[in-house]
Amino acid sequence: MATTDSPPTGGYQPSDQLRDCLAAWKKALEETEPKAREALEEGIAQELRDDRQLTLNVLAQHLPWTAEMLRLLMAGRDVPPRERHRQTEGEPVVYKLSERLRDLLADWNLAVSDEKKARASLEQCIADELKAHPALTNSEIAEHLPWSQEQVRVIARAHDVPRRRKRGSDHKLIEENGVPKAVTVPYDWYVQQPGADPGIARR
């Protein structure tokens, strides 16, 4: 819904389902994924400590980061400088991720996937909440979320939440010298009114 100067006044409180979805997403975002990433980064550092000839360019071919990003991630982790490859007879050695590093990478990918699923579940909960409470506005539910009402609007549209009329309290009265002069109304509300000028576009 359009931004107004009127604060939410509906006394809305999130359902238990929405609270649970929000808690699950926050845990995945703030705890599970960061721990898995930290373990993976430390595993990369250990891989580089164990193999002095392993270069960042080679290692980056097996990871979702560039060599430059790996260089930044390894800063401050006591990773020794790389040795130059020496010419050896026979076929060059093909590098493969260690079993330990493969497991850490799989754990991190799983944590990232779980965070995405938790967010999708949260967005669905938000949409269900809006559908279950036709008078509930985006600004009211946004008060209980880590997002603005604009983000809530994006979620609502993505889940086909029916648009609703704004309450009269969301209209803004403009006064001049203490005398009412005009009333501004939310754009989404205006375009739904009979006789609305189709030439008026959102700016």
Keywords:
203 residues, mainly alpha, elongated, disordered N terminus
Describe the structure in your own words:
By secondary structure, the chain is mainly alpha-helical. 49% of the residues lie in helices and 5% in strands. It is built from seven helices and two strands; from the N terminus they run H-H-H-H-H-H-E-E-H. The protein has helices at residues 16-50, 56-60, 67-73, 99-132, 138-142, 149-158, 187-190, and strands at residues 172-176, 179-184. A two-stranded antiparallel ribbon has the order 1-2. Strand 1 and strand 2 form a beta hairpin. Helix 1 packs antiparallel against helix 4. The chain is elongated and about 80 Å long.
Distance between the termini: 15 Å
Strand content: 5-15%
| Low-confidence parts | 1-8
Q: How many alpha or pi helices?
A: 7
Overall mean pLDDT: 85
General shape: elongated
| Largest beta-sheet details | 2 strands, antiparallel
- How many individual β-strands? 2
N-to-C SSE series? Answer: HHHHHHEEH
Helical content band: 40-55%
Radius of gyration: 27 Å
What would a concise description of this structure say?
With 203 residues, this protein is mainly alpha-helical. The chain is 49% helix and 5% strand.
